[in-house]
Write a structure and sequence with these properties.
By secondary structure, the protein is mostly helical. It contains six helices and no strands.
Amino acid sequence: MTTTVEREPADFEHDARGACDADQGCGVDESFSKSKEQRKNGAASAVDGTASAVDSKETARRRRVVQIARVLIPVGLTLAWLTELGGDVVSLHDRGLRREFIGDSMMWDLQTGGTAIGVYPSSRSDIQSRWAGVAQSDERRWREEDNARTFNWVMLLALSAGAWCLFMAKKGKQVVADYIANGVPEQKIKWL
């Protein structure tokens, strides 16, 4: 049966220097002895409580979260702004095409006496009122879209300002640094 004895790296270095007993010291320079003592103290603290190792892992995890957020938040906001601005342009273009289509369809319907859509002929006033109703429903829907778009603009402005404050302002940088160092304090978590 073979038994293994665990030894610290300092013991191997010490043996390589002259195979002296660790208690005697036998002429080993002080810097080596201090590093060995520091290693022993570090190993003792790690054995007593692994809080420092866990803290460093948690700190690294929080730092990684912040690095990912520093990339994803601006990219997400940029895509949201481009989508919103692009949606405005497309929406205005589509509205123009729809108005043109309604006008052309009404003219065609008037020329055919209402038989282009229905089987039975319609009077001029019936055709005009039908297409006016279509135009009014489109305008109503577009007003609702514009109201929603206004809300989107306000939210995007607020989110952009918040991201700027978090990553660019002095107080925001301090908040991020505190989060990396300490995490979220327990009293702030309770109200969530």
